[in-house]
Amino acid sequence: MLVCLVYCVVFLALSMLSFFLSLDFMSLDSMVVLEIEMVSINSNSVVMSILLDWMSLLFASFVLFISSMVIFYSHEYMGGDLMMNRFILLVVMFVVSMLLLIFSPNLISILLGWDGLGLVSYCLVIYYQNVKSYNAGMITALTNRLGDVAFLMSIAWMFNFGSWNYLFFLDIMSSSVEMDIIMFLMLLAGMTKSAQIPFSSWLPAAMAAPTPVSSLVHSSTLVTAGVYLLIRFNFCMGESVKIILLFVASLTMFMAGLGASYEFDLKKIIALSTLSQLGLMMSILAMGGYILAFYHLLTHALFKALLFMCAGAMIHNLSNCQDIRFMGGIINQMPLTCTFFVICNMSLCGLPFLSGFYSKDLILEYVSMGSVGFYIYLIYFLSTGLTVAYTFRLVYYVLSGNYNHFCLSGLGDSSSEMLKGMLGIILFVVFMGSSLSWMILSTPYFICLSFTMKMMTLIVTVAGGWIGNELAQLALSWKSKSLAFVESSIFFGSMWNMPYVSTFGVNFYFLHEGEKIYSLVDQGWSEYFGSQNFYVTLSVWSKFFQIFHSNNLKIFLSLTTMSIVFLVLMIF
To answer: In the chain, what percentage of residues exceed pLDDT 70?
Structure first.
């Protein structure tokens, strides 16, 4: 308990300090780069650079605040764990890696944080040591290694500029071929870390980690690292990179919304909603609205962290059951947790005057006003409708109807520490969106639209809620047994067969062919004619000579007798 409290208080204090510093930097419109000399050998110095500006300090304050609440929450959630201190230290290492990535203007020090996130995330995903966790951890680690390779290649290309401090070259070298190549590599790294198509399958698989880890990962650390990196590199993002990112991110947003509408695992639904929001951030970033992407990143971090904490409290009370079909009527037993849950879901949908509304509605109006084409406009509003649909479906299954779990259960809002951890975030979920709009947007966006276009967001939201309710009703009716519904739910629920393409398609066939080659060649013909044949031949000959060695007297007497008999026969 003492370790949790110490880290919680330290992170909370650092969060407040970072937040007020960010306000100071924002008001002064200033930026500071600190260079700390680590090693100096023969006039060659190794320098650690730290970038302090309003963006890095504000994001760091959110990361530290959410992690402090999650650590406090974890003390009760992971109370039965014998290795509690190890878990807390892993979470702290995770946060430190993210802070290293946030404050670094240098690609080498960013790589330390980037790889630290990948390594510690693997350790946390396999924390519950079983086959499912190991598989999920391996998928997570290997997918993120692709981004790490792209990162290493971009570090090699930065040699052309004579320094790894990318911050100095973003504006000056933005039109050079080398910076275009580095930008493509950074795009690949950001897409793997933020799970864009075709690297999306690891994100729901990573739900094998404990729920406090999921809360941290999906709000402000691992999956947002790719978005933050691309926000930093947005000044040198060429048109070709923007088009690729816009197309991929919009498809990811749409695909995740469809997948969540057919999913029954509580944590996976929330994970797919994270994927949908990441697609939203990436696509608005590709359209040039990097401030909007950062704004939504911060508001999303708050309500998504609390959403996972509420889900964790429900799972904890339901004897580790995550299937929403076994839930229902939980609001009668856990009113406070369910209230938080509904507020977070409404913030995700963009209900007016909650934190998610200010960023999401602004993004949608920005897209409506821009000249991005009908495809992007259509897919944005369809994805928004799907967000409301799967949210209402989730709320319908979890909160309404009859209780579907075991008769003997300990449901209730009795977990005081978990509730205190959630209470720490709920006020920010409600009020922080409006506060950030005044802080981040120094010049307010003036968006002039017709009445129909202005009301389109509200129309799509209401339509999405109705579709979500219908989907929930349909799954409980006889029509859900029809072949067409089952086939469509398998296709959409499996993320457009993405795991078969980017996970099993990459891993399974190579491993299967490797097993065949091993059994037929290494353990087959080459073994038969190679080492095994040599071994058998030597064994036969050694046994043969061993017979001679063991029976040499008998053989000598036998040969003597035979020679005498042969001589006698020859004489006569």
So the answer is: 91
Size (the chain), residues: 572
Inform me whether the pLDDT recorded for 215 exceeds 80: yes
Residue 251 placed within a domain: no
Q: Of 166-180, 433-447, 531-545, where does mean pLDDT reach its minimum?
A: 166-180
Return the CA Rg of the chain.
31
Listed residue (272, 256, 257, 265) closest to 315, CA to CA: 265
pTM of the model: 0.84
Q: Six-digit token pair at 487? A: 């086939």
469 or 266: whose pLDDT is higher?
266
Neighbours of 181 (CB within 10 A): 14
Give the DSSP letter of residue 519: I
Distance CA 336, CA 339 (A): 5
Q: Which residues contact 397 (CB under 8 A, 6 or more apart)?
A: 324, 325, 327, 328, 472
Cα 463 to chain centroid, rounded: 30
| pLDDT (0 to 100) of residue 507 | 63
Q: 32 — phi, psi (to 5°)?
A: -125, 130
Contact 292, 380 (CB under 8 A): no
- In order of 419, 441, 554, the CA distances from 291 in angstroms are 33, 8, 99
Q: Which two tokens stand for residue 302?
A: 């708050």
CA angle 66, 257, 228 (to 5 degrees): 40
Tokens encoding 445: 């966006």
Residue 552 lies in a domain: yes
The dihedral formed by the CA atoms of 43, 48, 54 and 59, expressed in degrees to the nearest 10: 170
Q: What local confidence, expressed as pLDDT, does residue 61 receive?
A: 92
Percent of residues, the chain, with pLDDT higher than 90: 4
Question: In the 8-state DSSP scheme, what is residue 166?
Answer: G
Q: Give 233's contacts (C-beta < 8 A, 6+ positions apart).
A: 166, 170, 183, 186
Per-residue confidence (pLDDT) for residue 390, from 0 to 100: 87
Per the structure block, which two tokens stand in for 87?
Answer: 């878990």
Provide the domain limits for residue 542.
530-571
User: In angstroms, how far is the first alpha carbon of the chain from the final one?
Assistant: 109
Q: What's the mean pLDDT in 474-491?
A: 61
Ramachandran angles phi, psi of 48, nearest 5°:
-95, 115
Residue 562 belongs to some domain of the structure: yes
pLDDT digits (tens, 9 = 90+) for 385-407: 888 888 888 888 888 777 777 66
Give tens-digit pLDDT for 112-122.
888 888 888 88
Q: Check residue 176 and give its pLDDT.
A: 78
Higher pLDDT, 487 or 276: 276
On whether the CB atoms of residues 46 and 39 are closer than 8 A, the answer is: yes
Q: How many CB atoms lie within 10 A of CB 377?
A: 16
CA distance 271 to 208: 11
What does the pLDDT average to over 440-451? 80
Q: Give the residue from 237, 219, 234, 236 showing the smallest Cα distance to 278.
A: 219
Residue 228, helix vs strand vs coil: helix
Position of tokens 């520490």?
A: 417
Domain assignment of residue 561, yes or no: yes
Chain-centre distance for alpha carbon 265 = 17
Domains held by the chain: number: 1
CB atoms within 10 A of CB 479: 11
- Please give the helix or strand (H or E) that residue 47 lies within, else none: strand 44-52
